[in-house]
Amino acid sequence: MADLALTLNVNGKSHTVRVHPLARLLDILREELKLTGTKEGCGEGECGACSILMNGQVVNSCLIPAAQAQGAEIITVEGLAEGEKLSPLQAAFLTHNAAQCGFCTPGMLIAAQDLLNRCPNPDENQVRDGLSGNLCRCTGYVKILDAVKVAAQEGSSR
User: Fold this and answer.
1) What pTM value is reported for the model?
2) What is the DSSP letter of 46?
3) Which domains does the chain have, with CATH numbers?
């Protein structure tokens, strides 16, 4: 199979890449664009570590063929920050120790940002529901929930 030329809009920047027709979006983000914040956990869309925003929706990038991202607006965890300045949500995760090993953190941040974009002042049940597609094997989730609630109070919707 011949490689495809794709143009992706990732974190506000246009990128043209040549990819194998069956390449996963996760691999293109990590290997071609060097955006390694997005992690591969299970490779089956179950853990949420590879979560990104694509056209305003949370998706598991391990399940998306790269060709489906042609022309899409993609936000990775790197795109949440403003240059070197952490977003209020990222800062809340940091100040509330909402990460232990940090492997799930990028997916948690993406899911939390999506929640706050849709529901700027969520209650605890809405936060739990918004993060339900993301697994963490290190924390008891309490600090993650607290960080999202604090970020909501500080106005973290985009």
Assistant:
1) 0.93
2) S
3) 4-78 (3.10.20.30), 88-153 (1.10.150.120)
